[in-house]
Amino acid sequence: MRAAVGLMLSHGSVEPVMSRPDYEQTALHHGCLLVLLRGVGPSKPRTLQRAFEKVRRVNNIKVNDSSGATRSVWVRYIHDHPVEHNDWGDFQSHRRVLGLITIGKFENQTELNELCRQHESLKVRYGSTLYETRAIFVGPEADASNHTDGVDGTVNAHAQQQELETIGEHCNDVSTPTKPRLQDEYTTPSNFKAQAFFYREQDSCADLEPRICDFVNALFWVLESRRLERAREKPDKVSLLLAPFEKRDFVGLDMESRNNRKRCVGRVMKNLADLSLQAGLVEDSLSLYHNANETLRSVGDSLWVGACEEGLCSASAMLLYPQLHEMETLHRNASLQEAGTSPLRNMSEKWRASDATKKVNTPDANNISNNMLNNVADTRITSNSSSCSSVSSILTTNSSASGTPTTSSSSTSTISAATFGHQQRNGELPGNILKAEEITNYYRKAIINYSKYRHAAIIETEAALKATRVCIEQNRPLDVAMFLQNILYINLSMTEAERVKRFEIITELYQQIGYQRKAAFFQRLAALKHVQQGSQAPDWNQSYRLMLCSFTGYLLSLDPLEVLENAAGWPALQIDLVQSLITAARRLGHSALATRHMTFLLQTQWDNMSSTEQSEMAVQLQNLSAQCEGSPVPLVLENGTVIPPANLTDLPYCMELQVKDLPAHLRPQRIKIAKADSGPFLFTPIHLNSLDRRDKKKEKNKIAFHWVQNDLSEVSVRLRNPLPFELIITDMRLLTNGVVFESLPQTIILQPHVPTNVSLHGTPIETGQLDLQGYSTHTLGVKSNCRLKHMRGRSFPPNFLVDVIPALPRIDVKTSLPQTATFSNMNSADIVVTSASLTLYNGESASCTITITNESSTLQVEHFELNINSNVDQEVQKKIFRIDEKDLQDKLPIAPLASISFVVHIYAEADFVCPIPAASLHSTAAGGGEYGPSSLTHYSSNLSTSGHASLPSRVSSPQHRRIDPQCASFRSTMSAAQHSLATLSLQPASGTGPPSIGSQYTQHIEAQLRIKYSGGEALTAGYCRQCAVSFNLELLPSAQITSWDVLPAEIASQFYLVLDISNLTAQEMSLNYTHNKNILIEAKESCRVPIPVDRCSLEQVCAARAAEYAENMERELCFRTQLLSFSDALSKLCSTHIAERVKINWLLTGTDIQGIASLRGIVLTQAMIDLTTVSPLQWFISFQDTPVQQHGEVVCVVGQHSMLSIKLCNQSLQPLTNLELTIKFYQDYLNGIENYNLETRVAISGPNIISIPILEKHEQTQHICSVIFFTPGRFKTSIECVSRPQISTNATNDAALLTRSCPGATNLGQLETLASSQQPHLNIMLESSYDEQQTHVWKFIPPIEVTVVEQQ
Fold first, then answer.
1. Using alpha carbons only, how large is the chain's radius of gyration in Å?
2. pTM higher than the cut 0.70
3. Following CA atoms 834, 839, 844, 849 in sequence, which dihedral angle do they give, to the nearest 10 degrees?
4. Secondary structure tally for the chain: helices H, strands E
5. Per-residue DSSP letters for 325-369?
6. 266: buried, middle or exposed (CB in 10 Å: 19+, 13-18, 0-12)?
7. What pLDDT sits at residue 77?
8. Omega before 893 within 30 of 0, i.e. cis
9. Does residue 961 surpass a pLDDT of 80?
10. What's the rounded Cα separation, in Å, for the pair 1034 and 842?
């Protein structure tokens, strides 16, 4: 014992202290053999990666000991191990380096010698603990002359020969190798005593793993021998094992005392437990740890008690959690890196939630391990001294080791990449094993014991890390946090790099339990330690990497869209972190990264910053982007990390985005096609189009209108600048998808906090569906793609879908008339492209030439359609505007860049006839029973005298009545003594309809000539464009017919139409009212002109009656209550007859302004109608048996009677009923006075009023009377026949019955034929069917002039 103390003192006063903690050490490493795997020589380890991989695969072997039991021996490979750590091998045997493997590459003998020298120096350095060493040398390839010609058939033989060369065996039955052996070409130095393996660079190293297996096997047997030696030592002969810092603590102490003797025994027992654990005897180590713990605790040896407690935890963990070995093995095989981390460390979602104890005993774990074993069983290779074993031999389990194993020269080792067989896997766990919850308590006790010793700080740190990893496996996050927190309070003398390493390990462990926030905190601490003030070589690269990795803990993501979507975390911390990241990127010189992160900061934290901070950050971004412009593309770092693009979607802030339709005159419209007749059904499910309707519901963001290919399109954006300074935006474009779209750049300057409307334009190049996704901007030096779906806080759809139709031609429209200041106030005024103004007098004609130019360079105008809309009635419009569309269609198609012209003829249509008040006409019609002189007075009293003052009072101009010339209902009145006056005018406009056209006042007419045109593929698709020309017409009054009358003419076939015409212009007017008669009318004056007009023939009257009957029968069949009257049809016929035959041409003297005043719409009374139409009666009159000729003179003698014979013949197509023939003599004083009181001057023998009940068709009747004149003089004879309606009710009903029952009778002849075969009383109906509700007067014209003389 004293000799041992002397030996301790001889080592000097320097205390060996562990240089740094082994942060990768776990509880399972207590049972592993430590092997130093080192690369030597100038070559980088990557070139020797294959050799390193094969060595690392051998991390576990199965060894049969002398008793036949199978032990599982684990190996831990490390790249670096401080020499001073070997001094702690007595305290914890797993800290000793037991084996050395060096791998190097050489090209010549000199380099090989250097590799051997480095290997020997490592042997000397770790020689106190090394058991075995191996050297692996990779040499150059053989010369090309020694190679074969590359025949594929020799590949297998070559591989076999190479394997034999590498192993060093010679077989007589193998042919000469194609390559020379490396050991034959190169030799190792004489002082190199280690075993070396030679391989060429391209060799597969197939036998390397068996050789490493032999190497591990050798290590095991040396270890086993040491364990046996330690086990055979007698308690009273054992030496005191010491930790390096304890050597001076026992100087001068009595080593033979009882406590010291127990201390020696306890420490040796603890050392034996360590060796047993490394040798695969886990159960034996548990017992030894318990015994040593009790022995050392009794003497108060706290340091070694803590080591015993830690050993108990490690041994229990190996039995409870054998999958930890499996996970480490699988990870090493996947990553092939010593310092690699487990997938569990980087993926918190794999945090195991089940209890650790259940994992060991559940059959699922066994199934998983068996499946994994089957997957890697093909990698098993047996050693040279053992035969090939089956997969079942790997799964062979052995009973618990019992007895003392003895040395044996024969052993069999098996290599397994992931071996799961364990002797306690399927059996019961030993009784002295620590339970899962006890492991944590024992680790806590061990750490407390370690904390009592200042020199054991590193041991304490490693114990806390081991406890942390076990608690992670046990799913105890709070205990993990407790152990990790304890690490921070351990006082260690470390460099800054070691502090950074400690923070990184703590970060990694926190991530494994899901404490991302704490992990990020320590990760950021590590990043700051890399670049803290005073550091001589700040590592900004590592600082940047660590801060970038800490994003997850601060609930940040590299993708700004994800950050905005989650909206979680602590904004102040996040802003500070990103700013630190920007600083690191700048110090690294990565301007693009700094710009990207600043853009990320503005995009994600804009709402969390004050206005001052926003302004400052914007200025910083502008300064950063001046060095490197930001672009919306991902950035890839050197380590493969992808930094997604960041876009300034809120800078500027988009308040509104609206897709604009094309200008109205360029918008595509559907060409209307007449609907096909789908049959008698009003509804059919075939045309339901329910599928289309469902699609429309889904596409709520689809725009209703269309854009046109190659036409400039517009999107309106309303932007606001949230910054306190001007914001310049350049290269602002639309973002689209789908069809090819050429977007035009826009540059704008936004004032602070002022909303601004911006129009973005572009041209679709193709047809199809265009996807408008947003817009791109270039502001503050950053290009951003601002998509609608990423704009938060606004009700924007994710996109807009616009259909692009084929290209349409464009035309330019010009007119020959001057334009107006305003285009149009009508509907669809937005399609007007040009205008034309014209001033005309009523009745004047003009023309307008319109020139159409095809502005398209490639498309023809193939479809051209004209339509006129105005504020007047359609019928009047047709008379005002007239276009020769046939001539226009002959000019189509319009070639590209060509022009055509067409003429629009314009006529100033107006009512030249003064209107009549409605009340007067209706009142007259209502008094149907009053006829004769009294009706004229009644009619005249209701007329308003608005005519010219110079005209007679009886010729008046009623007002305020407008009747359509074709469909208006006509009314008339009878006049016995005088001819009344009336007018016809246009239908009055309703409140919503167009205004009327009059001739008394200036009229303004607005009209649009709408042009629809198309061509090319768009025409095939059914699309066209529509534009319009606005016409503003000013119609000035010219001539007006204020009054009119109808008088009998000198001949029976004509009548005189007497008109009062006023000149409403300010110039003298020349009026031509017949072919050879003109009259001048002063301005604002009027004149009266007679115009002879041919009467309307009986054939026309009969045709009008037939049309009336046909329409009435149709109305009866359709159950219409309102029937037409024959008087209406006849009045309309006479009015049309006059309008067609009378045209009044006027000319303003001194000018070329001329026009035509039409009598269209003139209204006639019944008396006028009777004079206008040819009489149905044919007169044969004779006086004294002498036929009376027209304008002939009859001479009679006073006192002599003269015979007057009157014969009537019915020339009409129907009978005449209720006729009264009246004979009157009167004297005309030629001054407007007629004397009918001639009782003393003339006498008639016989009645002067004769009633004729009925006068059949072509029937004649005659009346003869004698006349005696008492005084000489000139007399006139008025002979007239009056038809009065006197029809019985039965006859009327029968007539109605006949009308309803005879729809086939379309004319009077058919009615008459049908009536002859019906009841007798129908004859009466037909006799009264001419016009039973009107009184007709037919006179013999002219009156007979009789000259009475005294004597002949």
1. 63
2. no
3. -20
4. 36, 47
5. HHHHHHHHHHH--TT---HHHH-GGG---S-HHHHHH-HHHHHHH
6. buried
7. 94
8. yes
9. no
10. 10
